[in-house]
Each structure stands twice: as C-alpha cells, then as structure tokens.
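Regression report. Comparing outputs from two consecutive submissions.

Submission 1:
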Amino acid sequence: MRFSVEPSPSGAWFVKLSGHGAPVSRHDTEEEAIERRDAYARGAAREDGALVHLRDGAAVRIRPIEPDDKPHVLQAFARLSAGSRYRRFLTYKKELTVTELASLTEVDHRDHEALAAIDPDTGEGVGIARYVRDPDRPVAAEAAVTVVDDWQGRGVGAALLAELADRAREEGIREFTATLLSENRAMRTLFDRLGVLRVVRGGPVQEIDVALPVGDGDCMDETLRAAARGDVTAA
C-alpha cells in the first residue's frame, strides 16, 4: 500500500491511499497526518492473526481490527460490487466517509468487536465480521459479515462468524440479531446454522435473532468450521 498526505479545501490534511479518491483520515495538522500515514504503512505490513485454511487450499489470517486498519477497510469496500454493498448496508453506497471509516475501525473489542480476514499473500483485507452489543439488552448484539466478491463462496464468512461467535460468548453475549435482505440466502443459511433462529420480521428485509449455544457440546463451532472447509455451503 502507498499513502500520501494532501491538504484539504477546509485547511485540514488528508491521508489518502493510492488509487482511492476517498481519504483514509482527516487531521488538523500536516505533522499529525504524516504520523498517521506512517502508522498506516506499519499496519499494512502486519502478519499477525490466526491462519485459517479454506476448502480450496487458500488461507486467510483472522485478527481483531485496529484503528490503523482503515486502509484495509477502504480497500475491501472498493472490491465490493454494487450488489454486495447493497446487501451489507441495505442502501446504495458509493464510498465510505472518514467518519464511517473511524466508526468501523475504532472499536472497544468488548461492546463492539470487529474481526478482519486478511489475504496473507497480498496483505489485502478480504472480509470483516462485527457485532455491536444492544445497550438495552446486553446479552444480545447485532452481527454482520461482509466478504469481498472474489472471495465469496470459499468459506471466509463461515470462518469469520465462528471466531466472532466465540468472542461474543466470551463477552457474555448469548444472542445475535441481524437485518438481511430475504434474497441473501447465503447469510440466512449461515445464521440458521448458528443455533435457534427466529424470524422477528419477514418481508423483503428480514429481521432475525439467533440464540447462540453455550457450554460443552456446542454444535455451532464445528458446523461453521465445516462450512469453512466446504462440507456445507456458506458465504
């Protein structure tokens, strides 16, 4: 990844990723922007995370998202088709703003967790899974998974969701909720295999909740890892 520091019309400074029109972040001074540019470059070279092998022999590294992963998120978003963006955001979205990138990467890893799947060969982000705890129902959290188009159907979504469910249970979360297009059968199937699924609201846009199994003998982890291996179909 190559980064540049450029002045903005408002007098602030942007850090930009080469090949992308939207800025990665905005800063009050050039010095702050240069410092952040260098941090992004260091983050792009990270090689940590659990290595997960997929059914076609490829592998991804899965690790928690950090603030310096903004370029990975911007890069992954650019690789989503219009249809994939609509299925994820339920609206047509051309780009992510600086504020949206911040909210997607600056998480507390407790009430808001986000995990990234990174291609170890290229260092590019290929998928993200996140949950956000419901403040009115702390045992529940809204979950979402997104995989770039050229990695869909290979088990990345299943691997991400398995890790996300593990993290959620560690934080006392016992139920995932999600809002899905009814046509998004891959994600519906994935959530259906998590546990006991209930459709809260039907129609073109469905609201579902899934009770996460707890304790020994959970079938969820093995089911999701089977999906990653290709034994079952998943995103």
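Submission 2:
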Amino acid sequence: MAAFDLFSIGHSNVAAARFIAMLQGAGVTAIADVRSVPASRHFPWFSKSNLAPLLAQVGIDYLAMGGSLGGRPRDERLYRDGIADYAAMALQPDYLAGLDRLAEAAARSRLCLMCAERDPLDCHRCLLVARSLAERGICVGHILNDGGIEPHSKTEARLLALIAGSGCDLFAPGQRDALAAAYRRRALVVAFRQKIPRVAAEKR
C-alpha cells in the first residue's frame, strides 16, 4: 500500500461498518468526496450530513470536492449529445485546480477519492479523475468491493480487455492510442446523461 499516492473507492450499497473497515484496511485518513450530489436516498449513511460525522468518529477527515471534480457538470458546454464530455471537463480551470487540491491533500494524508459506483470502470473517479492523476505521475490504487486494492495500471488493462475483448500490453507500440480510445468508448457508456424533457422526447 505504501506504493500508492492515493486511493479511490465506490461506496455502492455496503454497510457503513464494512465501508469504514475497507478504508481502515488501506490506512486511509481522509476522504475526498467527488460526487456532484453528495447524497444517497437509498443508503442515507452515505449522504454528506451523515457520512462526515461518521468518518470523524474514526479519525478520517472529509473533503467535499464534487464542485470541481464531480461527474455531472453544470455548464451545458461540457455535454456532447447530452453526455458529459470528460475530455472537455479535463481542460476546465476549476477541474485543474481541484486536481491541485487533491495532490496537496494527498501530500499530508492518506487520501481516498470516493464516489458511488462499485467498479472503478463504471465511474468518473477512474475514467476522468484517476486518469488525470496518473498522467501527472500520481499512483492511484482502487479499493475494490472485496477489500483488495487494484493499481490503476491494472484497471487500465481491464479497460482495454473490456473494449478489445482480450488483454493488451499497455506499453506495446500503438497501445497508448488504443488506451485513449478505450477511455473514450467507456465514457460514452457510463458518463452522466442529461434527462430529455418529456415534451422534447415526444417530438422525436
């Protein structure tokens, strides 16, 4: 675990005690919540108002960072055909400043990004944020539902296998282009989609 600069986790539907145990197992001392909407109707213990004091009880700090690093942009220009455009989001000044804040927080704590989706390949915390961090040379470990920690490089290998149907050598000639294409294709599947107003939908 010492090899990781920071972690990521998806809370999914796990019990609060299990979630805390997963964080403690990785030595996490601070959570950076990158949900655009830090609330959960079905699992209220993951709503910000409940989660922050719960984490404080076990000595884990809570940082709300969904405003700059969330996956549901408020700017209409950051959508393409109604789908959140990760490539465009990654260039925004607020987003870049959020990455700087993450790096600063990770330098003084064992930081873990948190969003909702169980598998990192289903979530912007991996396809957008962790990718950006990796490009900065920051080593990310994804805490999986079984408590294991998957290096981001292995998550990328899973992404390539998911898209291509077979495992690939990330460092083989041309694989970086293939990886970029895999990121784009996966984002089209999992990125946030704007709701189409009923009237507009009926006109189609």
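Expected: both submissions complete independently.
Actual: both completed, but the second showed a warning that disappeared on reload.
Relevant detail on submission 2: The longest strand covers residues 6-10.
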